[in-house]
Amino acid sequence: MSTAPVNTVDPVDTRSQTAQLSIRNVAKVFPGKKDLFSKLTGKTRRDFVAIQDINLEIEPNTFVSIIGPSGCGKSTLLNMIAGLSPITGGEILLNGAPITGPGPDRGMVFQNYALMPWMTVEENLRFAVETVDPKISAKKRDRILKEHIQLVGLTGAERKHPHELSGGMRQRVGIARALAINPQMLLMDEPFGALDALTRGFLQDEIERIWEQQRKTVIMITHSIEEALLLSDRIVMMTRGPAARIDEILDVPFPRPRNRETIEQHPAYHALKAEMESHLFRETRAVEAARVGG
Amino acid sequence: MAASHSTPGLLLTERQTTPVWHNENVRAFALFMLSLGLFLLFWEIGAKAGWFVKGVPTATETIKEFWWWVTNPFFDNGPNDLGIGWNLLISLRRVAIGYIAASLVAVPLGILIGISPVLYKAFNPYVQLLKPISPLAWLPLGLYLLRDSEKTGIFIIFISSIWPTLINTTFGVANVNQDYLDVSKTLGASRLRTIWKVIIPAALPNIVSGLRISMGIAWLVIVAAEMLLGTGLGYFIWNEWNNLSIPNILVAIFIIGLTGLLLDSLFAALEKFVAFGRNS
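YS: structure for the whole thing
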């Protein structure tokens, strides 16, 4: 574990001057228990290296998906970019400045929506807008709220509470809330993971449509190959954990605006899909094998 | 909302296809009435035939007595002959003062303790030690310290109804869904704004549950405490025991139960109001 695995991406070469987000040699180590008390009680635990040697440069206005087997530390990486989880090695730079904590320059979309159940749709958005800009005028605020509720197609549901909405509608609110604060970048942690296949498809189309309008930088964690291919400019494939790293970064050449029928006609589609499938299959099988063996 | 507009439709289709006694609520109500009738009948016959100890009133006597007390609730012929309405109001007033004071201490203190792990660890021993003490154990101490039966009654209510609210508030505040806190953090909300706009509303169902349990305890305790104090429903029961008026004791017991039920349903409604689809 002390020797770093050879990364397919050489950090020095790929370091870009125009990158909006630079992830440099980032690692996440969850500290174990090695104090005297733990030793005496026999409850010592070794350090757990979740991810290691992550190097990634993200240009402005690109849609990047991170895909990998379960438990490979994708969410950990995203939480570090969000500033919710401390970085234990390397650094993450946003516009050249290291990330030290969370901030409204990064909008976050959560897998389980994370809407406040006691707030209506409009109040959830208003809470976000007013938190980021407490001195905002009522007129400007209301315009922002209206625009974003309209953007995600929830006009008419402003006064509903989250429990009155379907999962798909809740995640629309989640997306609207993340965008309403006008962040530089959108971080999405398996945003459609909890939705059924049909709703998922609808929302993917919505994200594609919204992305065409706003072209914000997006980093999305996903399990779905089709989803990544439909939405991304680049797909980051991670290896299994522990000490997960980036295995390969694929460029997705399909022209935009995209829709799921036309991209399947593209000559590169099936090769890309096959490559991702074989990667995910290989890594997941290794995870299963390790679990059976261990 | 959904239930209210689905009910008429349900009734319509039911009426066409199944007889009315297949409805669960109708059957439950019928069973309730039947068991009540049987109980009253058993009571009536038993009391008349002398199955129980001597002096047990019949059901009809008790119901007549009950009717007299509820139709003449407010009369005042001195402290030992006071209408049940006055006694009820006296008890409710004591409960209200002690309970509100307890809530005003317990909720803010619970929020404070719930937010800070250090405070939680520091104060938990007090709470755990004081919580299991029977409220009546405080009575002599209260009388000694306050030298006043009225204040002592309120003090007992205060000290016994503080714990459930305090514990539930602390629990609710300490266990706010991490996602809500993450949202607040990513937006860069200040600590105060997070507490005010996220933590307290998120913990509100727990706080109200605590208030509900506290209210139940306060109502249990006041009756016991008043037996040793001056006026109120508890004293009414004690007084009627000295008069050996068993029907009046039964009347008071029924009124205490009914009042407790009403207070509890009030809080049940409040719980529903703050739940927003959560089931706590």
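YS: worth flagging: DSSP finds ten helices and ten strands in chain A.
IM: good catch. Also Chain A touches chain B through 27 residues (CB under 8 Å).
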